[in-house]
Amino acid sequence: MKGLSRYAPLLLRLSLAAVYIWFGISQLTSPDIWMSMVPDWATGMSGMSAATIIMLNGWFEIVAGVLLALGVFVRLLGFVLGVHLLLIARELGINAVGVRDFGLAGATLAIALFGADDFSLSKYIKDRRKNTSLNA
């Protein structure tokens, strides 16, 4: 079983990346269903409409999800996405969606703590550079 444990961070990273990509696409294709979830403080503080915030957030989640799936900037993205989702969960409160988002935020922060796994592009590039410099 120890051999399989090395796949755990990959599974976690890819699963969460799929979640962020799906939600990002959903925000771009059906922004109307997300409008009520944008808090008043976000529109007031930013000066943007709820629709604009949803579109920007959708693109952010898609780009971050793709980079996370590739395994690029894993720690940074895990931290930023985790905190982002914690803020959303806090805003939603204690209900089915808020508790779910709290759990997803915790899993995303776990990715940040773990960093680049054996199957991430960042690790591959780092190992390649290391091997290239050793052979030079």
Which terms would index this structure?
136 residues; mainly alpha; 0% strand; elongated
Can you walk through the features of this model?
By secondary structure, the chain is mainly alpha-helical. It has helices at about 1-5, 10-30, 40-45, 50-70, 75-90, 95-115, 120-135. The protein has seven helices and no strands. The longest helix has 22 residues, at about 10-30. The radius of gyration is 17 Å and the shape is elongated.
Shape label: elongated
Report the structural category: mainly alpha
**Approximately what portion of the residues adopt beta-strand conformation?**
under 5%
Q: Which segments are poorly predicted (pLDDT under 50) over 5 or more consecutive residues?
A: none
- Radius of gyration using CA atoms only: 17 Å
How far apart are the first and last residues' alpha carbons, in Å?
38 Å
Largest sheet: none
Q: State the assembly state of the protein chains.
A: single chain
Query: What count of helical segments does DSSP give?
Result: 7
Question: Got a strand count?
Answer: 0
Order of helices and strands: HHHHHHH
Q: How confident is the prediction overall: mean pLDDT?
A: 92
Helix content, binned percent: over 70%
